[in-house]
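Appendix B. One record, verbatim.
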Amino acid sequence: MVVLERREISQDAREESQIAQAKRLGQAPASLTYAHLGPGEEPILWIADTLAWAYGAGGNWRQRARELVEHVKDVDRCLP
């Protein structure tokens, strides 16, 4: 199960189309399920926002965030 954060209707529709295409092309399992949910409906969505805040705050907070996402390559290129 993949949980995607609910955004604008057009973006949600685009993501649904991309998932359907990936399933058709065999790039994602046919059994893949997903849901668009709001942060209030799925606490796991808070993690990305929390890490982005900590990184943006700089200093010790940035170092803590970096340690949590050290497996992400070139984190400094991903965030301003």
